[in-house]
């Protein structure tokens, strides 16, 4: 521990506490002693006694709570965006009503922790997927006035796996055209590949394919889609490049894996993780990729998949540009497999607020995507023969041909 940190823990006075002590000392010397102001003399002494008493009480409470804190399971399975109990507990005593206790995790950083009263049970809200071998917490104990504070670090050999949330999508409409046959009749003349199947209407679908009679009866829009051709469906693999804004494609990846939408004999890969061919290994790879920082392993993944007999790859991409773009473009230029680029986004980014709104309102986090940026990525990544699909995990829309929809939305946003 550094000397300054050790001194701070031994004398648990915050900046506000030192400021109050300095003000009380100045008032005591210049007004109380110098001008014999008995009111300020008594007030300055009471202020110093208050800070000293709160400091001693904070130290004593921290020692008691540190001895009694602890607990938790052998491993943690958490989910982004969901408050979950961890089993760790800091028992808060009702006879110490002036205390406030805060807990924070050192890693991963994008995680909120809270102690629920009156039990003192820890609940956490992860913001990004991760795989950590152990958990290190920082517990801070202070008074409600903010004059004194101390704390300790609690390290537990508890591995934690944080997975992204599942995407609430219709399994019958999700990526229905990624691994089907060609949209053409069979060479032998059998009626295969015609538009005889149906699914729910999504933005960007051609209006001429809507079943208007069904809509008139049920007020629900369905469109015709081609059935599977007689060609055998290829073995499908999926890959997720790491990116700071890749939570939407990570959520979609978990949905595809857990619902079995990749078909039999699938494989999953991600930046910074080993290839996986079973659900448990894929979950671990998905969690590990959240802290990889991007490794650009898509080209090597495609080559391994080609050698092992895979015929198609689903490339799960964010709706924002980043360091992943150049490695993915280079890999697609010589891709040995049929690749379908799937851009997953969590809604659309709202227009920038006016200066007056920015001055008086706290800005909201920018989770959505900009249509013009997605359209630019689509032009650079999804060049033939690479196909493209757009999935909005917030609304559930799945667009097989999103170019016209993106141009229209980009023009409306401008």
UniProtKB/TrEMBL annotation:
Region (Disordered): 177-199
Keywords per UniProt: Membrane, Transmembrane, Transmembrane helix
Biased composition (Basic and acidic residues): 180-199
Domain of life, per lineage: Bacteria
Annotated organism of origin: Mesoterricola silvestris
Protein name, as recorded: DUF58 domain-containing protein
Record-annotated membrane-spanning stretches: 12-32, 38-65
The organism's taxonomic lineage, starting at the top: Bacteria, Pseudomonadati, Acidobacteriota, Holophagae, Holophagales
